[in-house]
Amino acid sequence: MTGHTTAVPVVDFDRLPADWGHGPCILRGLDGVDAVDTYGILRRIGAAVRDGTCRRPDDVKVFTVPQVAAELGEYLPGPGESEFGPYARRVSQSLDVGWSVVANSAQSQSTDLYRFARDVFIRLRGTERGLPAGISDCFIVAGSYASGPTRIHKDTADVFLYVAEGVKTMLLWPFETLAGQAPDDCDPGHEYVALGIGADAVDTPPLRLTGGPGDVLYWPASYWHCGESDGQPSLSLHLATHNFRDMGPVWAGAFTRAGLGAQAPRWSTTERELAADALTFGRTAASAATSAVHQWSVTRHSTANFEILPDFPRCTPPDWQQAAGVRAAQRTPVSWAPDAADPNTIIVAVNGRSFRIAARQPSVSLLSALDNLAEGAVLSLDAWRGTDGLPADVVAILDVAYVAGAVDAG
Ligand SMILES: [Fe+2]
Question: Which InterPro entries is this protein grouped with (predicted)?
Answer without folding.
Answer: JmjC_dom
